[in-house]
Amino acid sequence: MAVETIGEAWQLGWRITARCAFGNSDGMRSIRSCIYQYDLDLRTLIWTRGAAFPLSDLASRLKCPRCGSRRVALAFHMPKEPQVQKAGKIG
């Protein structure tokens, strides 16, 4: 079963961590990399984006609050045993 939306990820008990991917160089000059990361709240994402929002589009809609970079990487944490949430109930 492929998980494609944030609603499906929430129902299966997934967690998503976003981290800034603004790295060591910007063109020809060297810059300090931003190491900010944050665990996203899937319930809030469902409220603001909708349960059918694709996971593949999520990183392109995020921006680092510390440095303002739009280069964001996502890490998906899946539980060893899926914890299916009741459909239709968020919270």
Descriptive notes:
This protein has helices at 6-11, 42-49, and strands at residues 15-20, 25-26, 29-30, 37-40, 72-77. It is of the alpha+beta class. The protein has one domain (6-77). The strands form two sheets. A three-stranded antiparallel β-sheet has the order 4-1-5. A two-stranded antiparallel ribbon has the order 2-3. 14% of the residues are buried. The model has no long low-confidence stretch (mean pLDDT 86).
**Structural class, please?**
alpha+beta
Number of domains: 1
Q: Tell me the Rg in angstroms.
A: 15 Å
CA-CA gap between termini: 24 Å
Helix segment tally: 2
Residue windows where pLDDT falls under 50 for at least 5 positions: none
- Give the overall silhouette: elongated
Give the H and E element order. Answer: HEEEEHE
Task: Report the mean per-residue pLDDT as an integer.
Answer: 86
The neighbouring-strand order within the major sheet is 4-1-5
The number of distinct β-strands equals 5
Strand content: 15-25%
List keywords for this structure.
91 residues, alpha+beta, three-stranded antiparallel sheet
Quick structural overview:
With 91 residues, the chain is of the alpha+beta class. It has two helices and five strands, in the order αββββαβ. The chain has one domain (6-77).
